[in-house]
Design a protein that fits this description.
The chain is of the alpha+beta class. 37% of the residues lie in helices and 25% in strands. It has helices spanning 14-21, 25-30, 37-48, 76-79, 99-114, 128-136; strands at residues 4-8, 52-59, 62-72, 82-90, 118-121. Strands 1-2-3-4-5 form a five-stranded mixed sheet, with helices on both faces. α5 (99-114) links the parallel β4 and β5. It is globular.
Length: 150
Amino acid sequence: MTDVIFREAVRADLPAIVALLADDVLGKARDFMQVDDAYEKAFADVTADPRNQLIVADSGGELVGCFQITYIPGLGRHGAERALIESVRVRSDLRGQGLGRRMMTWAIDQARERGCGLVQLTTDKSRHDAHRFYTSLGFVASHEGMKLPL
């Protein structure tokens, strides 16, 4: 996939993004395949926030991947921002072809250019392939993450 560009998502991308989020075992359990008011509001909120980037991988006008970067200010690391990468998805028929690596490299470069002190992400404990992938990019499982569904 050499013709892929990374760009900010626009409203017309929302149905394809939602489909990508639901295009795996865990996503099917928590995401819907159709755009509703909740997705519309979330998209508007994310894209209006200057500390968020909703990025799509576009191949000839077709969305083949997506991810979100959130820049978090903090006092730790001498006041450096950290970049949180979430909702990384590659279309299922294109996985294993290097697109995910290109997406993550692009995201890390964006964080570096912005002056972030670190890049962090979480990945579900059941996603063993994802763990190997992130480790191959240099990520280290240095912390135990916890979540509380509300």
